[in-house]
Amino acid sequence: MNLEPFLIRALVASVVLGIVAAPLGCLVVWRRMSYFGSTVAHAGLLGVALGIVLEMDLTLGVIVVAVGIGAALVALGRQRVLPVDSLLGILSHAALAAGLVAAAKLAGQRIDLMGYLFGDILAVTAADLYWLFVGGAIVGAIIAGLWQTLIATTVHEELARAEGMSTRRAEAALVIVLAVTIAIAMKIVGVLLIIAFLIMPAAAARPFSRTPEQMVLLAAIIGAAGAAGGLLLSVATDIPGGPAIVLLLAAGCLAALGGSVARGQGR
Predict the structure, then answer these.
(1) pLDDT tens-digit profile of 6-55?
(2) Domain residue spans in the chain?
(3) Helix residue spans in the chain (DSSP H)
(4) Are 121 and 14 contacting, i.e. CB atoms less than 8 angstroms apart?
(5) Would the pLDDT of 170 be above 70?
């Protein structure tokens, strides 16, 4: 069977993104950072508007804004006036609203809001693949280089600091890789579904993993398979690609949870 070039690009993008997102998704699950990630993701739409205004690459615009928002969240997280979850809730929806307003006010510019909000995997271009491979390499290199520090910080931050590990460096690294991953994933699964795409493979892998590395490997397999399966489901049933991928991954999560519960009751 001959596949159209756009289908090949979409398939490659979905599989690579599933692999790239696996270690970051595991870290988000371990550190309970899903709301933090949602806030950074919602700022992505503002990055698109910034890229159009400054006539720069849109992916680069998203990276710049996402890193800026992430850094601001890290700094504001140390204040004691508001609980962190309340602060994240405020900034998350404020960032999304600002992005929608900015997009609406760009006179003469056509922005595919549905594509950015929910993804358009079949519209992936060669340039998107370039960003995916380059961004994925950066994410992989940062995580591999700081893996032990990230794990130690996740388990016990104060103990990791006492052992001389740079916990702030690890925190900054997470912000960077989260921003880069969100930027390169936006075209595929959209702003509103990125965090679900990150955490679902990790959540499905967790009941069957005994080590962090095993969980990352299993999450990568689940993420790649779910992304490719969601793409095929999208093409076969004529439904949006991003939601199809997330629905398939959600089914995998429920199956994994059900299997884990059944296995626990059988002991």
Answers:
(1) 888 888 888 888 898 899 999 988 888 777 778 888 888 788 878 877 77
(2) 5-260
(3) 5-30, 34-42, 44-53, 58-76, 84-104, 113-118, 126-145, 147-155, 157-162, 167-189, 194-205, 212-237, 241-265
(4) yes
(5) yes
CB 176 within 8 A of CB 64: no
Compute CA distances 47 → 32, 100, 133, 150, 208, whole Å. Answer: 25, 11, 20, 27, 37
Question: Could you tell me the CATH superfamily of domain 5-260?
Answer: ABC transporter involved in vitamin B12 uptake, BtuC (1.10.3470.10)
Cα within 13 Å of Cα(187), Cβ side = 24
Looking at the chain, how many residues does it have? 267
- The answer to whether the beta carbons of residues 211 and 218 sit under 8 Å apart is no
Share of the chain above pLDDT 90, in %: 11
Q: Which two tokens stand for residue 129?
A: 């693949």
Phi and psi of 55, rounded to 5°?
55, 45
Please identify which residue in the block is written with the tokens 């959540």. Answer: 203
Amino acid, res. 182: I
pLDDT: is 94 or 117 the higher one? 94
As given in the structure block, the two tokens for residue 229 are 């399966």
Residue found under tokens 């998107």 = 128
Q: What is the radius of gyration, based on Cα positions, of the chain?
A: 18
Residue 190 gets the label, from left (phi > 0), alpha (psi -120 to 50) or beta, of left
